[in-house]
Amino acid sequence: MLPSESVQIRNCRADEIEIARSVFDAAFSPMANIYRFVGEALARQEKRFQEGVRLAAFIDGQMVATMQYRLDARHVHLIGLAVLPEYQRRGIGRRLVEQVAILAPTLGHDTLALDTIAETGNVLIFKKWGFTVSRSEPATDCVSDRYVALHVVNMECKLSIG
User: Which of the two ends of the chain, N or C, has the fewest CB atoms closer than 10 A to its terminal CB?
Assistant: First the structure.
């Protein structure tokens, strides 16, 4: 775990989007044999990269993680949490999620939500962070070199406010 003061989190500037894309790509490249989007899902993935607000985490001025969030009717939806492999398991991803949890009530929401692929093992991580599974279904827009079937898991975290 890194000291809090060494990680700086802020909104990603427009001139940093390509850096965020390279962080995202580097973070997700080890997952390519577990799952990858196909067909129209690739176009949707590209469109999602532009949605909502993008946060970035920096250490010594270097972007090491990024995540987007968007406001939905019932919750704040987290999208594309990506931490460079060499910085994973240091609490940086959790800090990004916590930043949105702090913002959520000011945005009129008391729930965070996200989607993940079960076979990545991320469900257990998000459960440790207070998320619960709200739905699981077969993934129809991605394929795997490792698994016959993949599952999209929708998770939510109710925030304690007040």
Answer: C
